[in-house]
Automatic annotation (TrEMBL):
Entry keyword Hydrolase: no
Pfam family, one: Cas10-Cmr2_palm2
Domain named Cas10/Cmr2 second palm: residues: 232-386
Gene3D superfamilies: 3.30.70.270
Superkingdom of this protein's organism: Bacteria
Protein name: Cas10/Cmr2 second palm domain-containing protein
Keywords, sorted A to Z: Antiviral defense, Nucleotide-binding
């Protein structure tokens, strides 16, 4: 058999759909719905139009077997599912087009507000030597569709309708709120909130995969561990470096299947290891409850200070207490880079870039997510210049700035002397010759923690005044044997705080309050300064 009809499915503005609400319940529910569109809803639609059972797991259990080639009774099979895409192969063009119509209609009903795109290729060859050319053509067609068609997947809002209190859309469906009152909200909000509230299938799957017995995930941002007066949460967005190129380099469907599944398995294993390490460390948090709020759920299970929102690939997002964001992001990246990619041709580790936005708990969540995404893009620029390495960028929002990251750094992190921004930072041990590394950042924070707190605060105010002012201040501190930490690398920043119009110490001072003093996931006691 030579040609089949391929359907390539994608989601549009998926991050906006998941993170546009300030409610963690809606974020989790939206993430659940996105997972379902390529699982349950896809499964149900295929069975409805084919009238037969389909094995949704065959593509990764036996990736070498192309069923449309080996079994003439098969009408459809999964090419692969991963990275926010799904490739389906149909024996019949009519059946492929019917699938797209019915699947789209189902999503309009079950997942209002979520936008998807589909490309159909009636001449998709199953011959391995034509695979790359076929996928390039299909991807180009999908991109053209996404850039030219903008479907409306929510009911139009009229002037006479009430506004939904959660989304601002038209309030058109009844809903029982947390206090038992019947109110009207938008279909989009209701669809997102119900999966989290009803603890449905997807939530159970998440728990089964990651949670040790006796622990639970938070359902509210307030349950992440923040204390009164230290109410910050961290939004962590991590993305694989060069993964799109690795997928495009796959020379056959079998290679794509193996890589897609291996990336998913590695990511989930890394998540599981991080969460289990965190669960094993909860005793330290319990010993410092004056700094950290420990929650129990209704079944007396300990609630972890971390909640995965997007997982199962190289695109990862989780929320945690503001003091844990950079630390846990760094840990996750290190664990993931150690995970083997089983059964794939290119065994190179998954290197990633991370953006960590530390925001006040009441700060608009979607704006915080956008910041994390911008920080991740900033880290990716450094990764592009330094292949095979992990990079991280962070921003701690003390105010209510609404500009984009570049605007904030231009306005608030540039002074007459130069830049107060030293990142992004290289993560890991392979940092020889680099100055902007997490190792230098952590060593510097450890040295500065030996200073009197009043002097640390003074230094933070002095640094923006420039090199000469900082130099005079440091001269005065010498009598108290206080000197700036040395930065591994060619520049002598420690002499007067600045070199080549940049200082590494300002972000170091900012992060000190948002990074644990002890590596508690590995050993030692957790202490907050």
């Amino acid at each position: 058999m030579g040609k089949v009809t391929a359907v390539f499915l994608d989601t549009v503005s998926i991050q906006k759909y998941i993170f546009t609400s300030n409610s963690l319940k809606e974020n989790l529910g939206a993430s659940s719905l996105v997972e379902r569109i390529f699982q349950e809803y896809l499964h149900e639609t295929i069975e409805e139009i084919c009238g037969t059972e389909i094995d949704m797991e065959a593509w990764f259990k036996t990736p070498e077997t192309i069923q449309l080639k080996t079994d003439q009774t098969k009408l459809v099979e999964i090419g692969y599912i991963g990275g926010g895409n799904a490739l389906l192969l149909f024996r019949s063009e009519d059946m492929a087009r019917l699938f797209v119509r019915k699947w789209s209609l189902k999503l309009l009903i079950e997942t209002p507000g979520l936008q998807t795109a589909a490309a159909i290729d009636d001449y998709f060859s199953l011959n391995p030597e034509e695979y790359q050319k076929n996928m390039e053509r299909l991807t180009k067609s999908l991109d053209q569709g996404k850039n030219t068609l903008f479907p409306n997947s929510v009911l139009t809002k009229h002037g006479i309708t009430a506004d939904c209190i959660y989304s601002g859309n038209s309030a058109e469906v009844p809903y029982i709120d947390a206090e038992g009152r019947e109110i009207y909200i938008s279909a989009v909000s209701k669809a997102k909130r119900l999966p989290a509230e009803n603890n449905e299938h997807h939530m159970d799957k998440v728990k089964e995969k990651f949670l040790p017995k006796g622990f639970a995930f938070p359902l509210e941002h307030e349950q992440l561990g923040q204390k009164e007066g230290k109410s910050y949460l961290a939004i962590v967005h991590i993305d694989g470096n060069g993964m799109g190129k690795r997928f495009m380099e796959c020379k056959s469907l079998v290679e794509t299947r193996k890589l897609s599944w291996a990336v998913r398995a590695a990511s989930e294993n890394a998540y599981k290891k991080l969460i289990r390490k965190l669960a094993n460390s909860m005793e330290y948090f319990k010993n410092h409850q004056e700094e950290f709020e420990i929650w129990q759920d209704k079944n007396n299970r300990t609630i972890l200070p971390l909640r995965p929102i997007v997982f199962g690939g190289d695109d990862i997002t989780f929320v945690t207490d503001g003091r844990l964001g950079v630390y846990l992001a760094e840990k996750f990246m290190g664990i993931l880079a150690q995970e083997p990619l089983e059964k794939v041709k290119n065994q190179n580790p998954i290197y990633t870039s991370a953006g960590v936005a530390v925001i006040k708990s009441r700060y608009p969540f979607y704006r915080g997510y956008q910041m994390a995404e911008e920080l991740c893009q900033s880290a990716k620029k450094a990764a592009a210049k330094n292949p095979d390495s992990n990079w991280l960028d962070f921003y701690i929002s003390q105010g209510g700035y609404s500009q984009a990251l570049d605007g904030i750094r231009q306005k608030h992190y540039r002074v007459k002397e130069g830049s107060l921004n030293f990142g992004p930072y290289l993560v890991g041990e392979n940092s020889k010759g680099k100055e902007n590394t997490m190792i230098n950042l952590k060593n510097g924070m450890n040295e500065l923690r030996k200073w009197p707190r009043a002097k640390v605060k003074e230094l933070r105010n002095i640094l923006p005044m420039g090199k000469e002012t900082t130099k005079r201040y440091l001269e005065n501190l010498k009598a108290r044997e206080l000197i700036l930490p040395k930065i591994e690398g060619p520049s002598d920043y420690y002499k007067d705080g600045w070199n080549n119009a940049v200082t590494p110490y300002f972000e170091m001072l900012e992060l000190m309050e948002f990074y644990p003093e002890i590596d508690f996931l590995s050993e030692g006691e957790l202490v907050w300064i």
